[in-house]
Design goal:
Helix content is about 35%, strand content about 20%. It is an alpha+beta fold. A hairpin with a 2-residue loop joins strand 4 and strand 5. The chain binds zinc ion. Zinc ion binds next to loops.
Length: about 450
């Protein structure tokens, strides 16, 4: 039967879909607090039952932490895996909530109807948009449009400690042609966006040691080397005047933005003045010849995140310190290899350390960027139908931060991910009074129906 029939089923079923979401939201599945272990189990059980009611072969799968929920539907055509998470953030400070965070309700606000409750947006509401689309599809057609694997995690808000081992142990079962992830938002709360590039991260700590102990600058100042001076000279040389990072080979594996992507980003009308204005700034720093959006989404950076050394307490002390250290991080894009870059950075630092000083390095995290190959026809298919639902044409976007699960799907399962989500900037995820617009929920369900239709047509 036609997509239109599925869409009108979704419209008719919205009140029941909202009831089901509120039911799930009433389970306080706070993953980080061991006291809520039974409630996390309960949320997983709820999802297993709900999937089974749609004919999905679903089960709760134990991990050393909270369980995963895995469900399978056989079918022809592409095999997609859908990912969402059923755990939520803690609710404190409780007194800032206008209602019990686990007694969800539909509230009427100036901006329209919202679902209020912890997890409404992040991520139970978003997760259920996909489930509800499948339910409507199943009810209308008696089956789902393709082979689907449902994969729900219960530890996303507490660092996903079981995710990597679970993916490795169950790789053959979970590997699909494409992953669909619903845990992101609309661009500027309005434009449907398919996130196709997420920056990676490399962290490094450097410590410069000079004299064998702290010295008095009156006694030793002049002839003895000051490690803060060495450190700040190195750090000061990290960028040139045009904002380019000076570590050799830094830009070797940084791709230029393809023309069509550049045009899509241009069309988004990103207001960098408002963006910087919000934090009390005016002028874009960073690479002089790049737009602010390009810098956040598709350019690598080097940032000094902390410096330590000498006396920083009240008053004054004329110390010439024995050591000084700094934490430096790099946001990575394209094919930049974090491990190779770490070595290039260390070599570059070592070459600048004078004979009387030594340098020690301490490695922090290293994760490459996730760059989805938009070659898969599903990406263009999804983009073309989302505009129909939302009015604004959809765009492939980037993300300055990282969404680890997308990277793990790629590195462990060799699977690209399409990140689609309907959250808005004012959803107050992780904060008191979290909400999800009823419109986001409704259009999100309809969007998934359109996407499933488009990628299996
Ligand atoms: Zn989330």
């Amino acid at each position: 039967m036609s997509l239109e029939t599925v869409l009108s089923r979704i419209d008719d079923d919205l009140p029941q879909a909202l009831d089901r979401l509120c039911d799930l939201l009433s389970i306080p599945s706070i993953s980080t607090d061991p006291a809520y272990k039974p409630q996390c189990e309960k949320a997983a059980d709820w999802l297993v039952e709900d999937l089974r009611s749609m004919g999905v072969e679903a089960e709760k799968r134990p991990t050393p932490g909270h369980p995963m929920v895995v469900g399978h539907v056989p079918g022809d055509g592409p095999h997609v895996l859908f990912y969402g998470h059923y755990d939520v953030q803690p609710v404190d400070p409780l007194e800032l909530w206008n209602r019990d965070p686990f007694d969800p309700a539909i509230e009427v606000t100036e901006k329209g109807r919202v679902i209020r409750g912890r997890g409404a947006s992040d991520d139970k509401g978003q997760l259920m948009t996909f489930v509800e689309a499948c339910r409507a599809w199943q009810q209308v057609n008696g089956s789902l449009p393709c082979r689907i694997t449902f994969f729900f995690e219960g530890e996303e808000e507490s660092g996903s400690p079981s995710l990597i081992p679970f993916l490795k142990e169950n790789a053959d079962e979970l590997r699909a042609d494409l992953a669909l992830i619903c845990d992101t938002g609309l661009f500027q709360s309005r434009t449907p966006s398919i996130m196709t590039q997420l920056r990676g991260l490399l962290g490094e700590e450097i410590t410069i040691t000079g004299p064998g102990k702290d010295l008095h600058s009156g006694m030793y100042g002049g002839p003895s080397m000051n490690p803060i001076r060495v450190l700040t000279r190195i750090l000061g040389g990290l960028h040139d005047d045009a904002g380019r990072v000076q570590v050799p080979h830094f830009y070797d594996d940084v791709p230029e933005l393809p023309q069509d992507m550049a045009e899509q980003w241009q069309a988004l009308g990103f207001d960098h003045e408002a963006f910087l204005g919000d934090v009390g700034l005016k002028n874009p720093a960073g690479e002089a010849d790049r737009s602010a959006l390009e810098m956040i989404w598709s350019r690598p950076t080097a940032e000094i995140n902390g410096i330590k050394g000498g006396y920083t307490g009240e008053g004054f002390k004329t110390v010439l310190p024995s050591r000084a250290s700094a934490k430096v991080s790099f946001r990575l894009v394209g094919q930049q290899d974090p491990h190779a870059l770490r070595e290039h950075f260390r070599e570059w630092v070592r070459a600048q350390v004078p004979a009387d000083c030594k340098v020690d390095f301490h490695a922090h995290g290293a994760s490459p960027a996730s760059q989805m190959s938009t070659e898969h026809p599903a990406f263009e298919a999804a983009r073309s139908v989302l505009g129909t639902e939302w009015g604004d044409e959809a765009a492939f976007t980037g993300c300055g931060g990282s969404i680890p699960v997308a990277g793990y799907f790629k590195s462990i399962l060799g699977m690209d991910a399409m990140l689609l989500g309907w959250a808005k900037d004012d959803d107050q995820i992780h904060s008191p009074n979290e909400k999800y617009d009823v419109e986001s929920f409704h259009k999100g369900i309809r969007s998934w129906a359109r996407v499933l239709d488009a990628i299996t047509r």
